[in-house]
Write a structure and sequence with these properties.
This protein is mostly beta strands. It contains six helices and 22 strands. The two termini are about 20 Å apart.
């Protein structure tokens, strides 16, 4: 990285801080598959700009937008003044996503679809994998952090008559847990931009058992298309997370319903987005739970599901899903692939466009990086170490 570029972006830093900034940015950019890094230090024409892969000429500068004004015609316009700067962070700066009290004001930072369509940031379609890493300090909220995840404005809430109606255009994004685990790291992916498992919302999601802390941390995920897995990370770690009794869970009841549907007669006629059918060949483990001589009940454990099986002799009488794996989560699809600009959503930071217009995540975001491949565990650990190092002070 040329030294003059760094000083042009961070002229307010001391020499040692500038050197450390350069080292950290370089570590991100040298990670294989690097697409973009917004560190809220690099600017162009006053706007936050992204470090990009060598040779990429796309314009990934961030616009300040109040999406309620754009879609409902309500509220004032957003400006960069609505994103207070901390003056320090993993890369020496951070923007604050504020707990806005005005219901007509939901500002976010975004790259419009027209400037990212078919770029490396627009990860979609056959065989494509993606990783997203965010350095942050969470204060509250469980909704969107960053990604391409336009939830649509066609799912109206009471009294929210929208002027600009658009369907969901979801691809990939990070959330702060949602109803899956409030305050955790959740990785959302979509194969159709719209709903899944018979619900009106998208429900393919990996989530961590661990929660984000109040200090600087790193939220991340990797979608590995070859392995059909989505893995969520907190501070470079991704522990296995099983959901028992998923039929009772506020979020994972939906893939549970998809699993039941996939194992009923006529499942081949059901749309693929309504089914949840991870591989269940030879069990990893079989445990006998009951045996009265005539009937035997076993627990069959697979890579992504645990199934209670009732048998009479060798005949299977009943199969019941008793647990599913939430991290990593099985996702046997390609990412939604918008063919035209009008069919795709923007890349947003801090919030996403959605009908409920809730405040969502609040806190500081000090860096957002996208990679066009599934990062390894070691790569996630190396990137997370940046967030755990002492923040750089802007002076």
């Amino acid at each position: 990285m040329a030294r003059f570029l760094c000083f042009a972006a961070i002229s307010v830093l001391t020499l040692s801080a500038a050197d450390e900034y350069e080292r950290r940015v370089s570590a991100v950019r040298k990670t294989p598959g690097f697409v973009a890094l917004w560190d809220f230090v690099k600017r162009d024409d006053g706007r936050f700009d992204a470090w990009k892969a060598r040779g990429d000429k796309h314009d990934f500068r961030l616009d300040a937008v109040n999406y309620v004004r754009d879609y409902w015609g309500q509220g004032r316009a957003a400006t960069y003044e609505d994103f207070p700067l901390l003056g320090s962070g993993p890369f020496s700066q951070a923007v604050r996503i504020v707990n806005e009290k005005d219901p007509d004001f939901r500002p976010c930072l975004l790259v419009p679809r027209g400037r990212l369509h078919d770029s490396a940031l627009d990860v979609k379609g056959s065989g494509k994998s993606v990783s997203l890493v965010v350095w942050l300090r969470r204060e509250s909220g469980n909704h969107a952090i960053a990604g391409i995840w336009h939830e649509g404005t066609d799912l109206l809430g009471e009294g929210q008559q929208v002027k600009r109606v658009e369907p969901g255009m979801r691809q990939y994004a990070l959330f702060a847990g949602l109803a899956a685990n409030n305050g955790a790291v959740a990785a959302h992916v979509s194969e159709n931009g719209a709903k899944s498992f018979g619900d009106k919302y998208a429900r393919n999601l990996a989530v961590t058992q661990e929660l984000l802390g109040s200090e600087w941390g790193v939220a991340a995920f990797a979608f590995d298309n070859a392995k059909n897995t989505v893995t969520a990370y907190v501070d470079g770690k991704a522990t296995d997370y099983w959901i028992d009794n998923p039929e009772k869970h506020p979020f994972f009841q939906w893939p549970y319903k998809g699993w039941v549907r996939a194992h009923q007669p006529g499942a081949e006629k059901v749309p693929a987005n309504e089914l949840y059918a991870p591989p269940e060949g030879k069990p990893v483990r079989r445990t006998v739970l009951q045996n009265n001589g005539e009937e035997r009940v076993e627990l069959h454990e697979f890579a992504f599901t645990k199934v209670r099986v009732t048998l009479r002799g060798k005949q299977v009488v009943k199969r019941e899903l008793v647990a599913l794996k939430a991290n990593p989560f099985w996702f046997g699809h390609d990412l939604y692939s918008p063919k035209e600009i009008a069919n795709g959503g923007p890349f947003t930071i801090g919030r996403v466009i959605h009908s409920s217009r809730s405040v969502g995540f609040t806190g500081y975001i000090g860096g957002v990086a996208v990679f066009g491949r599934a990062l390894t565990k070691k790569e996630m650990e190396r990137l997370a170490a940046i967030g755990k190092g002492r923040p750089i002070q802007a002076r």
